Amino acid sequence: MKKLYPRCHPYWKNEDGNIIKNNSIKGLAVSADDFLLPCCWLDMTDRDNERNGITYMRREHLKIQNNDTIDDIVNSEEWKHFHRVLLEAPYDAPERCKIKCSKALPKGAGNEIR
Ligand code: SF4
Question: How far is the CA of 88 from the centre of ligand 1 (A)?
Fold first, then answer.
């Protein structure tokens, strides 16, 4: 796994180390059991969450009802860790992310090098 181009993240780094701004960020999702998710593709069963190594994203304190704002959740250590893995250690990323976000969007899809 060389790198990921997470649709949920505001930027990526290409093979040359250039920052590519993601102009079409995939939106957050909310699960039926009250968790905020980086995207709808991660709305999975408990078993799939285990297989993908992301049960930490569903810790009790991350439930929406246990937070005052969305920022409290997306700025949590768990979410920071998740995004750090996507960009810096893609080999450890969830399999679902490797399947969905392993290719850069084609040119003209709203992305730009900055
Ligand atoms: S599949 Fe993973 S990397 Fe892709 S948008 Fe969803 S959370 Fe982000």
Answer: 14
